[in-house]
């Protein structure tokens, strides 16, 4: 069984489409858990009646929301899904078939929701780095096994950036990182459109360097809505 965990902070504009894409999944055994955290909009109302479990937290916290969703999940396979990311209809079925216990963490092919050539190039390079395991990150989707996730301590709740990569590095003790190119997810380019591609690329480079030589717990992630 797959437990899809969606942390959502002020995501009323995007969450409905994400949940609708999950409703269309051609997969029998899965559940959807939405953790609305620190919301000042209608995120919880959008999720009401459209997921298997809705959790509402008064404070914003990505790591807290994900860890709580994982603890309450009934499935043995966890899929952390960004609230602005749409799974293709066969995605969960492909993941259930391809993601085995030989792997401890993984992601699927990411696709931008804007057909601009520069953004398509960014995601081509991003998918290639995941396929070659050059960077064990995610494209709006992160996969892992619940027992290993709990043993590994879950997400670092003090981190707002590179929390996926940090968890994936810890999960490597249990198995390999797997990229599943046969399943895809379309994710929002709102951050690229708001910040600009090159300023954002420079930001990611600085964050990557700081992750090796400094402490990221003091770096905050700007909310883009």
Structure description:
The protein is α/β, with parallel strands linked by helices and 225 residues long. The longest helix is centred in the C-terminal third of the chain and has 17 residues, at 197-213. The model has no long low-confidence stretch (mean pLDDT 90). It is built from 9 helices and 8 strands. It has helices at 12-23, 43-47, 62-72, 91-98, 117-131, 146-151, 163-171, 190-195, 197-213, and strands spanning 2-8, 30-37, 53-57, 77-81, 85-87, 103-112, 141-145, 176-187.
Topology:
Layout: E1 2-8, H1 12-23, E2 30-37, H2 43-47, E3 53-57, H3 62-72, E4 77-81, E5 85-87, H4 91-98, E6 103-112, H5 117-131, E7 141-145, H6 146-151, H7 163-171, E8 176-187, H8 190-195, H9 197-213
Parallel strand pairs: 1-2, 1-4, 2-3, 6-8
Antiparallel strand pairs: 4-7, 5-8, 6-7
Average pLDDT figure: 90
Oligomeric state of shown chains = single chain
Q: Which spans of ≥5 residues are poorly predicted at pLDDT below 50?
A: none
Strand % is 15-25%
The total count of strands amounts to 8
Helix proportion range: 25-40%
Q: Return the string of H and E elements.
A: EHEHEHEEHEHEHHEHH
Radius of gyration: 16 Å
Tally of helical runs: 9
Largest sheet: 8 strands, mixed
* Class based on secondary structure composition and strand pairing: alpha/beta
Tell me the strand order in the biggest sheet: 3-2-1-4-7-6-8-5
How far apart the termini lie comes to 32 Å
The outline comes out as globular
């Amino acid at each position: 069984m797959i437990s899809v965990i969606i942390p959502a902070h002020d995501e009323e504009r995007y969450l409905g489409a994400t949940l609708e894409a999950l409703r269309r999944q051609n997969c029998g055994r899965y559940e959807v858990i939405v953790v609305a955290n620190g919301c000042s909009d209608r995120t919880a109302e959008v999720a009401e009646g459209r997921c298997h479990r809705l959790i509402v937290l008064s404070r914003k916290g990505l790591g807290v929301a994900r860890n709580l969703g994982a603890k309450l999940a009934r499935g043995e396979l966890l899929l952390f899904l960004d609230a602005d990311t749409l799974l293709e209809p066969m995605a969960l079925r492909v993941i259930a078939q391809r993601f085995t216990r030989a792997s401890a963490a993984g992601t699927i092919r990411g696709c931008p929701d804007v057909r601009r050539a520069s953004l398509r190039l960014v995601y081509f390079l991003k998918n290639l780095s995941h396929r070659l395991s050059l960077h064990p990150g995610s494209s709006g989707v992160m996969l892992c096994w619940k027992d290993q996730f709990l043993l590994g301590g879950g997400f670092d709740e003090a981190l707002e950036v590179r929390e996926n990569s940090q968890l994936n590095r810890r999960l490597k003790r249990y198995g390999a990182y797997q990229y599943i190119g046969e399943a895809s997810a379309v994710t929002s380019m709102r951050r690229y459109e708001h910040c600009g591609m090159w300023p954002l690329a420079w930001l990611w480079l600085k964050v990557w360097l700081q992750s090796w030589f400094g402490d990221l717990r003091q770096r905050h992630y700007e909310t883009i809505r």
